[in-house]
Amino acid sequence: MKRVGIFLLLLAANLSPTRAASPETTQDTRITIAVSNKERNQTLFEMRAFLEGFFSIQAALARHDNPAIASMARYIQTTFQDTANSLTSVHPEGYDQMSGFLIDSFGAVARAAEKNAQPQVVHERLIDVVAGCAGCHQMFRFEVHDKR
Ligand code: HEC
């Protein structure tokens, strides 16, 4: 929960109406991670799966369908817990921590839904997930150094 607080603080500092329209937005000052094309494609594939999983969980939450939430969150957690760290050699430390945090957060959503928790509780766990997405995107970007 402490780490989520940091992510949210980071977001609050970054998102303001004045900033959206400022020349600052045309410069990308995030930490750059050098990757090959192949590594980037692999990560983007995982990212699209995260987005799709997040969407499905939100839709299931809207209809109070805890079994569907549990099965999707577990699927994401177990499928990506190894591959999410597959590029460890090129990642700065903070990146891997955030990726681990995201996978743990999907696990926490699954646990809450498996215990048939109230929608509000599941929703709170889901906020940790999206804080993980937003926090990492605020901090890191990829740059392709190897076209393979
Ligand atoms: C550990 C860091 C990290 C986390 C956590 C993370 N992302 Fe990403 N995401 C990235 C990076 C890096 C890129 C690539 C950006 C680039 O190419 O410069 C990316 C790209 C994406 C893309 C673009 C995919 C494409 O095909 O172009 C989507 C969509 C996305 N992320 C969704 C998510 C969602 C949804 C979550 C949370 C459920 C999430 N990400 C969590 C690091 C992260």
Task: Please explain how this structure is put together.
α5 packs antiparallel against α6. This protein is mainly alpha-helical and 148 residues long. Strands 1-2 form a two-stranded parallel ribbon. The mean pLDDT is 86. The chain has a single domain (2-146), classed as Four Helix Bundle (Hemerythrin (Met), subunit A). Helix content is 70%, strand content 9%. The termini are far apart. It has six helices and two strands, in the order ααβααααβ. Bound molecules: heme C.
Give a count of the beta strands, DSSP E runs of length 2 or more.
2
Shape: globular
Mean pLDDT: 86
> Which quaternary structure do these chains form?
single chain
Beta-strand proportion? 5-15%
What is the CATH architecture annotation? Up-down Bundle
Helix/sheet category: mainly alpha
